[in-house]
């Protein structure tokens, strides 16, 4: 038996062991992608969903429909219909949502540095280019929630790369918040602080009040230990509601807030969007 054949022959025992532990599994072909639909299921002929967002009514015994093919049924995994794909399989994958977990897929060193600073420690698994951080609990899956960061949970699959190290931690709000978007607005080319109304007066009158407000806002962002994106937006909203209508805010004040947010991992684009959305919500 050649080395590649021997390695592929080990896929099925691994899949059966995972299935016995309640982890829904499926085979992956070369390129880390699922096997395509069989001829009977091509072009949705079986009634299944080709976009893989729901399993659909298809009862095809073959490993079709991507993540929705994941199963814990050993009879299915051992069936003749699956025998060929196990011989050709390049890897074993699993459905994190079906296993009750969420995988934060960190695809490079920069993403790992961010996770170590922003996320609570949990079970980790080494990958080819980065790490999988696995949390107990499920949520919607999403790609590119941050540079180099994907969320794999419900209606998704992840490669099985071993049990990992460390205890599982409950899925934190800071991870859930990664997929929460603020109300969509048309972002202007330049986000400016509104000018004071004609004849308007400064409600706080003393510069020290504004300085103290900006300093407190910086501190609130800096001390955020979870849900950083939501904290940044709420802080921008608070600053603008108190200081945004008299014209005293300058680009220097905005820059201080953006710098604090970016030090917590926010991108310049996210800062600009959050600022613009706060302006819109306040009708400014």
Q: Can you describe what's shown?
A:
- Strands 4, 5, 6, 7, 8 and 10 form a 6-stranded mixed sheet that branches.
- Strand 5 and strand 6 form a beta hairpin.
- This protein is of the alpha+beta class and 284 residues long.
- Helix 7 runs antiparallel to helix 8.
- It has 10 helices and 10 strands.
- It has helices spanning 3-9, 11-20, 74-77, 80-88, 109-118, 173-176, 207-222, 228-243, 251-263, 268-281, and strands spanning 25-29, 33-34, 91-94, 101-106, 123-126, 131-136, 142-146, 149-152, 158-159, 169-170.
Spell out the key features of this protein.
36% helix; 6-stranded mixed beta sheet; disordered N terminus; 4-stranded antiparallel beta sheet; 10 strands; single chain; alpha+beta; 284 residues
Task: Please describe the topology of this protein.
Layout: H1 3-9, H2 11-20, E1 25-29, E2 33-34, H3 74-77, H4 80-88, E3 91-94, E4 101-106, H5 109-118, E5 123-126, E6 131-136, E7 142-146, E8 149-152, E9 158-159, E10 169-170, H6 173-176, H7 207-222, H8 228-243, H9 251-263, H10 268-281
Parallel strand pairs: 6-10
Antiparallel strand pairs: 1-2, 1-3, 3-9, 4-6, 4-8, 5-6, 7-8
Short description:
The protein is an alpha+beta fold.
Largest sheet: 6 strands, mixed
What integer value in Å does the Rg equal? 25 Å
Q: Roughly what percent helix?
A: 25-40%
Structural shape: elongated
Task: Report mean pLDDT, rounded to a whole number.
Answer: 82
Q: Which segments are poorly predicted (pLDDT under 50) over 5 or more consecutive residues? A: 1-7, 183-193, 195-200
- The helix-strand sequence is HHEEHHEEHEEEEEEHHHHH
Number of DSSP helices? 10
Distance between the amino and carboxyl termini: 71 Å
Structural class: alpha+beta
Strand content: 5-15%
Instruction: Write down how many β-strands occur, each being a DSSP E stretch of 2 or more residues.
Output: 10
């Amino acid at each position: 038996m050649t080395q590649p054949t021997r390695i592929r022959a080990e896929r099925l025992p691994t899949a059966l062991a995972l299935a016995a532990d309640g982890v829904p599994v499926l085979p992956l072909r070369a390129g880390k992608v699922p096997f395509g639909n069989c001829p009977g299921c091509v072009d949705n002929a079986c009634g299944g969903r080709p976009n893989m967002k729901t399993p659909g009514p298809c009862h095809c015994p073959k490993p079709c429909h991507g993540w929705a093919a994941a199963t814990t049924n050993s009879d299915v995994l051992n069936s003749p219909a699956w025998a060929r794909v196990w011989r050709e399989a390049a890897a074993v994958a699993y459905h994190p949502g079906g296993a009750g977990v969420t995988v934060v897929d960190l695809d490079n060193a920069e993403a790992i540095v961010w996770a170590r600073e922003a996320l609570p420690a949990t079970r980790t698994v080494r990958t080819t280019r980065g790490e999988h951080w696995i949390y107990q609990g499920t949520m919607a899956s999403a790609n590119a929630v941050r540079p180099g960061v994907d969320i794999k949970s419900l209606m998704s699959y992840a490669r099985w790369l071993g049990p990992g190290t460390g205890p599982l931690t409950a899925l934190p709000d800071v991870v859930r918040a990664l997929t929460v978007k603020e109300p969509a607005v048309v972002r202007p080319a330049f986000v400016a602080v509104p000018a004071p109304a004609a004849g308007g007066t400064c409600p706080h009158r003393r510069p020290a009040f504004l300085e103290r407000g900006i300093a407190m806002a910086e501190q609130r962002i800096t001390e955020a230990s979870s849900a950083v994106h939501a904290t940044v937006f709420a802080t921008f909203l608070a600053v603008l509601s108190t200081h945004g209508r008299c014209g005293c805010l300058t680009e220097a004040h905005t820059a201080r807030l953006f710098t604090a947010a970016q030090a917590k991992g926010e991108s310049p684009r996210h800062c600009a969007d959050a600022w613009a959305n706060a302006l819109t919500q306040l009708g400014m």
